[in-house]
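Hi team, as promised in this morning's meeting, here are the two structures we talked about. I've kept the exact order from the run log so nobody has to guess. The first one is mostly here for context; it's the second one we should focus on when we meet again. Sequence first, then the predicted C-alpha cells.
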Amino acid sequence: MTDGHVVRDADVEYESVDAAEGLSKGVLLGPDVTPTLSLRRFELAAGATVPEHTNEIEHEQYVLDGEYVVGIDTEEYTVSAGDSVHIPAGAVHWYRNEGDEAGAFICAVPNGDDTIELL
C-alpha cells in the first residue's frame, strides 16, 4: 500500500508574491501532502527583482529556466538552468533578473514557520 500523490502541472495555481513584483509561486507539493517538506515552483519575470530578505527556514533550489542573479549575504551568483542553490536559514538573500527572458526554479523547503522579513 502507498500513500503516494501526484499533482498535475495543469492543476498547479500560481499567485503573485506580495514581497516582489514580477515573482509568482505555485505549490507543487505542500504540507497537505507531505509532512516534512514543501516543493514550490517560482517564476521570476524578465526585469524583476526580489528585495533583500530573510526566511526562518533554509531553501534548496534548482534552476529550471533563464539566467538571473541570486545574492546570498555578501556574494552574488549568476545562475542558469541546471544550477543548484542552497540558502541557509536566516541568510540575507535577493534575486535580480536582468535578462529578457523569465527565470524559473524549484524550491524545496522544510515545512514549518517560513516567516519572511524584508530588509
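And here is the second protein, the one for discussion:
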Amino acid sequence: MTTDKKKLSLTSKVLLGMSLGIVAGFIFRTLLGEVAFVQEYVVNGLLQVGGEIFIASLKMLVVPLIFVSLVCGTSSLKDLSTLGRLGGKTLAFYLVTTAIAISLALLMGNLFKPGDGVDLTAATTFATKEAPSLGDVIVGMFPTNPINSMAQGNTLQIIVFAVLFGIAISLAGKPGERIAAMFGDFNEVIMKLVTLLMNVAPYGVFCLMAQLFTSLGLDAIVNLMEYFLVLAGTLLLHGLVTYSIMFRAFTGLNPLTFLKKMEDAVMFAFSTASSNATIPVTMETATRRMGVDNKVAAFTVPLGATINMDGTAIMQGVATAFIAQAFNIDLTFNDYLMVIMTATLASVGTAGVPGVGLIMLAMVLNQVGLPVEGIALIIGVDRLLDMIRTAVNITGDSVVTCIVGKSEGAMDVARFNNPNAGKREEEIHFPHGARPQAKNEG
C-alpha cells in the first residue's frame, strides 16, 4: 500500500524548505518586523537556534570524515607514486580553473562596467586581516600536534597527517591491514551518519533562509543591482558553461548528468554558504552518485574545499573592475595580468583563513593600487552572493574530482550513468546487507 505513494526527493524537500524559508523571512520582515515577540523568540530564537544547530551538525562531521576517508583512500594505494600523481593533477586543475574564473570575471566586469556612475561619498574605511605568506602557509600545513589540528578544524594539517598516516598503514604489513579494515568500518558508519543528517536538512535550510531574509534589506541589492547581476551572471556562466566544457573534454561523459547529480550538494552549499560544511554532502555525491573511488574523492574534495576558490576569484575579478570604475581609475593590461596571478596564487596562500574572500580581495586591490576602502561598497550584498559562489566552488571541486578519478581509472562510469545510483531510497528499501554494492567505492 505504501509502494504507490510518491516520495519527494531530498532535493525537492530542500528546495521546498528554502522557498518556504524565503517567504517566511519576507513576511517576518515586512508584516511582523515591529512585533517584539516574533523578533525575539521566533527570528532570533527558534530560527537562529535551528539554523545554527544544523550548521554545527554538518561541521561536526567534517573532521572525522576528512581524516577517516583520506586514511582509507591513502592506505589502499599500493603504489605510492600514485599519490604524487594524484596530488599534482588535482592542484594543477584547481589552479587552472581559478585562473579561468578570474579571467572570465575581469572580462565580464569590463564588458558591462557595473561601477560606472557609482556614488562613492558613502564609502567607509575597511580594515582586513593581513594574509599569511605562501611560505608560512606551506610550513603551517605540517601539524606539530595532530589532535590540536583536528580540534581547531585546520583542514590542510588534517590532510597532511591523514596522508602520512595512510602511507604508514599501507607499509605496515599485517598490522596495517587490520587498522585499514577498522578505518573502513569507521568510514561506513560516518557515511551512515551523513545519511541520517540529510533527513533533517530541509528543516535546517528553512531556518537558515527564514532568518537571512528577515534581516536582508532589498535596498542594498537595488543600490548595487548592476554589480549584483554581473557577478551572479558570471558565477552561473562559470558554473554551468565552463565546468560543463571541462567535464566533457576531460571525461567524455555527459555534463547534464553531472549537473543533475549535483543538485543535493549545490542546495546545501547555497544554504550554508560554507564549502567546509558541505564536505560531507559533496563527498557522498562524488562517491555514491558519481561513482568516483573513495581513494580519489577523499583527497580531492577536502583539498578543493580548502584551496579551490573559483567563486571567490570571480567575486574578486568583478569587484576589482567595479571598484576601479567607481573610483575612475584605469587599469592597464599588466594590471589585469597581475590581478589574475595574485588571485590564483592567493587561493592557496589564504587557504583556511577566516573571511578569506575579503582578505584575497584586499590583497588584489593593494597589488594594483586600488583603494581597499572600496570593499565597503559591496559588503551589503556579499552575504547573498557568497551563497552563490559557494555553490560554484563545490561544483568545481566535484568536476575536478571526476576528471582526476576518470584519468586514474578510479571512476565507475556505469554508476555515473545510472540516474538512481547512490539515492538514499536504496538505504531504505533494501534490507541490511542486501544493498547493491558499488565496486569503486573504496
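Starting points for discussion:
Confidence is low (pLDDT under 50) at residues 1-5, 425-442.
The domain at 10-417 is CATH 1.10.3860.10 (Proton glutamate symport protein).
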